[in-house]
Design brief:
Layout: E1 13-17, E2 24-28, E3 39-42, H1 45-51, E4 56-62, E5 66-68, E6 75-81, E7 84-89, E8 95-100, E9 105-109, H2 115-119, H3 136-139, E10 146-147
Parallel strand pairs: 3-10
Antiparallel strand pairs: 1-2, 2-5, 3-4, 4-9, 6-7, 7-8, 8-9
C-alpha cells in the first residue's frame, strides 16, 4: 500500500456502544490482526438503509475476542438475509454491527467505537494505552475492501478516496469470512 495508508499506532483493544449507553462492548485484537484487511465498507441497499448513510464502514473483530460489557436487554437483531444479523439498540436505535452468524468475525460499525479509541478524546488519561489522535486510521482505513459497489452513487461514492483504498466488489463479497 502507498505511504498514505500508514496506519500508525495499532490498538490492542477497543470499547464502544450505543448512543443511550445501554449497550456496551469491548473487542480485543490478536497480535497478528491485519488492520488493513479487516477494515472496509459496504454500499448495498440493506447497509444504506440500516445505517441511514451512503455506506456502512466497519472493522472486523474476531468474535471470540469480543464481549458485551453491559446488559444486552435492549440489543435486537434484524435479519434481512438468512443467517446475517444486523444488531441495533432497541432503545435508541443505534446500528452496532453486522454479523454472519456462521462466521468468525463481527463487523463493528465504526461510529460506535468510543471517542478515546477513534480519535483520542481523553488520551491524556488513558495511561499510555491510547496515543494522541487515537487509532482512527488503523480502524477506519477501509483498505480491506468495498462490497456491493455496483450500488455506488455516480459522482458521489464512486469518487471518494476512502472508498477507493481497497479491492472493490461488484455485487458479490470481496472476501470470505
Amino acid at each position: 500500500m502507498a505511504d498514505q495508508y500508514n496506519l500508525g499506532a495499532l490498538p490492542k483493544r477497543i470499547t464502544g456502544g450505543c448512543l443511550c449507553g445501554k449497550i456496551r462492548y469491548e473487542g480485543h485484537f490478536p497480535d497478528n490482526h491485519d488492520f488493513k484487511q479487516n477494515s472496509g465498507t459496504c454500499q448495498c441497499t440493506q447497509c444504506r438503509r440500516s445505517t441511514s448513510h451512503l455506506f456502512f464502514m466497519w472493522h472486523k473483530v474476531p468474535y471470540s475476542l469480543f464481549k458485551w460489557t453491559a446488559s444486552t436487554d435492549t440489543l435486537k437483531n434484524y435479519y434481512c438475509s438468512k443467517g446475517n444479523a444486523r444488531g441495533f439498540c432497541g432503545n435508541c436505535g443505534t446500528f452496532l454491527y453486522w454479523r454472519r452468524e456462521s462466521g468468525p468475525n463481527i463487523n463493528i460499525a465504526i461510529g460506535t467505537i468510543d471517542p478515546l479509541y477513534l480519535f483520542g478524546e481523553g488520551w491524556e488519561d488513558s495511561g499510555g494505552e491510547v496515543p494522541k489522535g487515537g487509532f482512527g486510521r488503523a480502524l477506519a482505513n477501509s483498505c480491506g475492501g468495498h462490497e456491493w459497489v455496483r450500488n455506488e452513487i455516480p459522482g458521489v461514492t464512486d469518487e471518494l478516496e476512502l472508498v477507493g483504498a481497497g479491492p472493490r466488489g461488484r455485487g458479490e463479497r470481496v472476501e470470505a469470512d
